[in-house]
Amino acid sequence: MSSLVKSLAHLGGQNKRKSQDHMCEICGQRPKYVEKNGFQHPFCSRKCAANVSQPIACGLRGCRATGNRTAFGGFCSDAHAKEAVHLGQVMGCTQCKIQPPTVGDLCAPCDRRARAGPRLAELDTKGVIFQSVTDQFLREWKSPQNAVSVKKIYEVIIARDVKARYDDYKKKIAEAGNGVLEPRTFHSSQCICDLGVGDAVLCAFQACGICNIVKSSFRNFAFGIAQNTGRYGAGIYSYLNPALADGFSTSCTTSPYRVMIACDAVVPTVGKKKRGPGSINDGQRVFVNNPDAIVTSYIILYTK
C-alpha cells in the first residue's frame, strides 16, 4: 500500500510540474502561447514578450538558477522570492510583507486586490495602529452623557484609483494657491448588517449606509442616495467630534456594536478661513461637495 501511495504522490508531483511548465515564464499567470504548428513560446502574449530581457541570476543568495523571472521580482521561483523576504535579503510588499514588490511597492497579487476595490483588514488590538486610532477617537469624543469603549477596528484598504483621485484633488487645490487642511473626521449612518460579528466583509444590502459608503468611497449612501443634505446644502458631512457623528449611528441587527467610519478629508482654505471652494470646516462639522475630497480610512466598532 505504501508503494502505491508513493507512486501516486510521485505522479501528482510530475503533473504539477508539467502544469507549471506550461505557464508563461514572464507573468506566471497564463498558459504559454502555442502556434498552429505546435511551437510553444516562453510567453503568453505580445505584452509579456515585450518584457523578455536577458537571463538574470536568481536573487536568492546561493541559488544558481537563471532565466527571465519578471513574475517573481528577479527570483527563479515564487518559493525563492518569499524566502528572500523571510531572510531579510529584500524588502517585502508593503501590504502582505510576504513577497517582494513587483508593481511599485506591491507584489502582483496585492496589486490586483488594490485595483479590485476596498477591502477590510482587522487591526491587532495590541498593535500600535489600533492604539493610535483608539486614542484619537476617545480624545476627540466630547460628550458628557456617554463613555465609549472601542472593541474592534478595521483598516479600509481603498482601491488604487480612489487614492489617486484623492491625491490629485489635494494637489489641484494646492496648485490653485489655496492652503490645504487634512483633518481626521468621523461619519456614521445606519448599519443593517452584522459587520464585526463575523468575517470582515462588506454587505450587499442597499439600505446599509456604512457598507455602501465604504464600497463607493462616498459616492453612494444608503438606498443609492448620491449626497446628504444639511446646513450647507447637498454634499458629504463628517464631524471632528465622533460623538456628533454618533447621533446618526443606527443599527437594525442584534450586533452589540455601534459602527463609525474614520475619514481623511481635504479642506481648501482661503487666508485664515477654514473654508474654500466646495468645502467648509466650521469647527464641528466638515462639509465637502466632491467625493474625491474624502476617503474612508478605518471602521470603528464600539459600545456605549
From TrEMBL:
SUPFAM superfamilies: ADP-ribosylation
Domain of life of the organism encoding this protein: Eukaryota
Protein name per its UniProtKB record: PARP catalytic domain-containing protein
Organism per entry: Piloderma croceum (strain F 1598)
